[in-house]
Amino acid sequence: MALVIANRVKETTTTTGTGTITLAGASTGFQSFAIVGNGNTTYYCIAGQGTSEWEVGVGTYATSGTTLARTTVLSNSSATQPSALSFSAGTKDVFVTYPSEKSVNLDASGNATALGTPASGTLTNATGLPISTGVSGLGTGVATFLATPSSANFAAAVTGETGTGALVFGTSPTLTTPNINSAQFETVSGTAPIYPCRAWVNFNGTGTVAIRESGNVSSITDNGTGDYTVNLTTALSDINYSTVITYSQNYGVARCVGAQLYLNGGAGTEVAPTTSAARFVTTDASAAYDAKYICVAIFR
User: Fold this and answer.
1) Could you tell me the pLDDT band of residue 257, with boundaries at 50, 70 and 90?
2) Which residue has the higher pLDDT, 235 or 260?
3) Where do the domains of the chain lie?
4) pTM of the model
5) Rounded to whole angstroms, how far apart are CA atoms 251 and 117?
6) Closest CA to 33 of 59, 15, 56, 51
7) What secondary structure letter does DSSP report for 142?
8) What's the distance, CA 74 to chain centroid?
């Protein structure tokens, strides 16, 4: 059922009372209500000829019996709306009109009067639309962000985010200690690729082994003098990693220092690397030696 408004539509009726009216045919020079279409609605006015009775409303046209049902009464001469006016005997004019209650007009300043709640529409050029009250269906915080698009308001409007601080864009951004896949980058220059350290540890290798600080290292196994195994918290994908070992020297002996990776210190044989541990021996003057400061970094 559609609302149809057509030009120069006018008929007459002799129906009395408050019910559906029967149309008597088009007046001379006018169209009949058939132009509205069966089952469609239109705005109507019924006005008594030679009387002060009138009614304006929304009517539904039917080809059967050529009738117009007074579906919604907007106003009438007795102010009984929304109840229908009870028409007295006599001929009445029935015509399509444009009720003031349904009209859209420009005020003295050129602004359109209130539109109510349009069923649909497309805005191509609109100003002054209040985001907070004029747009529905926005998520929590979205209206606030649209009105004041700050980093803080953006963070409040989105969900599932991690981290805090200001928005960062792709061209030369400055990142403040970001955590990317558990690798922290602070100052980087040049175009060479970056391969992050996958595990690191700083520990005391004398007496009872003690870890000072570490990353992705669960423990240090003391296998004997100068013989250590670094155990990883999260294993690597394979054994093709690179291990960098530095440690403090014993200045009281000759300078023959080195860390022997994948070596069993007691047996003097190689130990195959694993994805979860790296074993090495620290030496001084060709003998195993417990160093006070030992640093290990693993890259892959």
Assistant:
1) very low
2) 235
3) 10-101, 197-299
4) 0.46
5) 88
6) 59
7) H
8) 43
